[in-house]
Amino acid sequence: MSEVLEKIWQHQQISRVELVEHTGLTSGTITNLTHELIELGVIREFEAVSGNVGRRRVMLGFDSRRYRIIGLDIGRATMEIVVVDLNGKIVRTIERDMSDRKGPDDYFEVIDPLLREVKRDIESEGYTILGLGVGVPGPMDYGAGTLLDPPNFPGWKNYPLRSVLEQKFGLTTLIEDDARTSAMAERWYGLGRTTQNLVFITMGIGIGGGVVTDGKIVRGTNGLCGQVGHMTIVINGKMCDCGNRGCWETVGSIPGILSRWSGGNSMEQLLAAVRAGEPEALKCMEDTLSYLETGLINVYNLYDPELVVLGGRLYPYLADYLLPVQNHLRSRLYAFAKDRLNIVPSTYGTSQSAVGAAALVFGFLLSEPVRLLALTEG
Amino acid sequence: MSEVLEKIWQHQQISRVELVEHTGLTSGTITNLTHELIELGVIREFEAVSGNVGRRRVMLGFDSRRYRIIGLDIGRATMEIVVVDLNGKIVRTIERDMSDRKGPDDYFEVIDPLLREVKRDIESEGYTILGLGVGVPGPMDYGAGTLLDPPNFPGWKNYPLRSVLEQKFGLTTLIEDDARTSAMAERWYGLGRTTQNLVFITMGIGIGGGVVTDGKIVRGTNGLCGQVGHMTIVINGKMCDCGNRGCWETVGSIPGILSRWSGGNSMEQLLAAVRAGEPEALKCMEDTLSYLETGLINVYNLYDPELVVLGGRLYPYLADYLLPVQNHLRSRLYAFAKDRLNIVPSTYGTSQSAVGAAALVFGFLLSEPVRLLALTEG
Predict the structure, then answer these.
(1) Check: complex ipTM more than 0.85
(2) Residue B239: closest C-alpha in chain A
(3) Partner of B80 for a Cys bridge, out of A71, A329, B95, B323, CB 3.0 to 4.6 A?
(4) InterPro entries annotated for this entry (chains A, B) (predicted)?
């Protein structure tokens, strides 16, 4: 069933005959499985007119009429809620600045009423909510559903986020590191229809990474796989919150960049000074790009992904430099691999992690549709 | 069948009843599969006496009486041939210094007669050779079975190694990057019985890495996954053969270390000078360990493996420093993960890659026994 759903997702619209071809299942099996999925409201039939003769064919696609998924991103400076249908269409977005708030109680003062309102609205329109996906700063304890000790995120140490959310809202709840939710946004709704081996790098107040291999999140033994922001870039450099020295995050995140420039305290100001040719600002930007290049070359030589996606609140300030950075990187990669370098901006901008949080639930639906729907009924 | 073989390998000796428990297959299926595997000569029955009452039980284990595997390592300074039985026991080892040889023709002058002799001896003793596994300096083109342009290994660019070996020796031939074969030696014959998520780091003339996740080699999109020696450790550092600057290999390999010391030209001399307290030698060793620590912290924060295994010709010179390096690393890791740090020396020392080359063929036998045996018959 999972395989059939994955094929439908890849093709967006596909006939039963094509499903038989692509899965190798018998047409009887396809008939039964698609019948069941239609009954469940996960997929539906469309009539498509194809070719010159205008022959009508019955196609299958995801059904956006019965279910909704909620994605929630709890960030260091913002929180965002998105509502997504089964076609990956974002039907609602709510964003709030959280930069003056600190710790779970303070955050839930904002989140609680908004999420209750969203839930009520979806249900009053007659939709069923499949689940709540949540992106938060990592690392976390996946078994317990708690945050561990996220750097630069005071008050959240050991917070039992998953069980709190489940109790508050009564929804199937999946939580994940925000760099990994961001990667999942590409994997399911963005660029992942064509490539399922990617590294997402989110740069903002911190720098995080989400590694997707063969379409699956790779977490590592302690949930630390993909902590690209905590690779040492400056040997014997500044102490980092994580315990290491000279991490990319200490020099390449927004605070890291601004700590190397005395002329102001925002990226807007830095960029204006760079445009005005201010020498210290130029040096700061040059070093920032050098750190970025080093981070990226290490990502290539360690993970060798098909695709690197850059996102986060820092990215827009560096976007103009992406082309020269890529050209420079090509000259530093193994010659045979240099033409395959592929670095692109994220599809959903500042909503990336919230959309990816919803994508977590969508991924669960595709891998275990019957189990998720049973949880939803219960 | 693959699952049954994997369970037998994990337990070394296991009864049919335990196989039913561990696989969830029916006892009828286990009876049939084990019968077939016994007929094929892959496994055999043993009688084991267990418990106080001395009850006799029929156990199953791998059969070392019918098959042999040959492992070949083609290195930058040595070549080695090992012969391994199906229990992973090394029954023969041949090693040759190759430091005055250059390029395939020169190497095959040595390899050809030795490998022919080994093959003839195995066959004259009545064994069947399952295949030839080969470790070589990467990167390589796996589809074509050719080397690409390995750094510091002149004359081998684009060499069609797999087809040449197949034609010369008529054996099923698998080729792999030598850091990955080294990792496979642990995965199948070494420490991998208890942990299947490991990174092997081989340090010698070059520095390479082999990443094993859930028991499988991870190659990446271009075969570059795990090129740990080519992560930038010294920003804006020395040019490396790979195209990048400041790679760990440029400062942390044997030539990289010796390039930072003017007092001699061997690791033995450097270590003697360190013991004698010669200041430049002490500084060189201190920096070497700092680079090693940085390399290792990056490996942890990027891959988060259960186990890191260190090997290669450099390792013995650094072995005495492993404990302080580990202690220092613990203080630099995320606090919650620091007790799980586990770095150990390789099981097979200088024979690691050759043993791992044989392990490639063993892995193929376990995943597709019928296909490999059919190739062997043909």
Answers:
(1) yes
(2) A332
(3) B95
(4) ATPase_NBD, ROK, ROK_cs, WH-like_DNA-bd_sf, WH_DNA-bd_sf
Residues B204 and B299 in one domain: yes
| CB count in 10 Å sphere of residue B21 | 13
Closest C-alpha among B76, B77, B115, B112 to residue B97:
B77
User: Measured between CB atoms, does B289 come within 8 Å of chain A?
Assistant: no
- Asked if A166 contacts A106 with a C-beta cutoff of 8 angstroms, the reply is no
Partner residue opposite A304 with nearest CB, options B197, B225, B335:
B225
Beta strand spans in chain A (E): 14-15, 43-50, 55-62, 67-74, 78-84, 90-97, 128-136, 140-141, 146-147, 173-177, 198-203, 207-213, 216-217, 307-311, 343-345
> DSSP string covering A48-68, please?
EEETTTTEEEEEEEE--SSEE
CB B246 within 8 A of CB B265: no
DSSP at B239: B
Indicate yes or no: CB of B224 within 8 angstroms of CB of A305. Answer: no
The answer to whether residue B196 neighbours chain A at the CB level (below 8 Å) is no
The three-state secondary structure class of B330 is helix
Residue B196 and residue B277 share a domain: yes
Does residue A337 sit in the same domain as residue A199?
yes
CATH number at residue B276: 3.30.420.40
Q: Is A223 in CB contact (< 8 Å) with chain B?
A: yes
Q: Provide the number of structural domains found in chain A.
A: 3
Same domain for A272 and A167, yes or no, is no
A352-367 vs A2-11: helix crossing angle, rounded to 10: 140
DSSP state of B320: G
From chain A, pick out residues whose CB is under 8 angstroms from the CB of B339: none
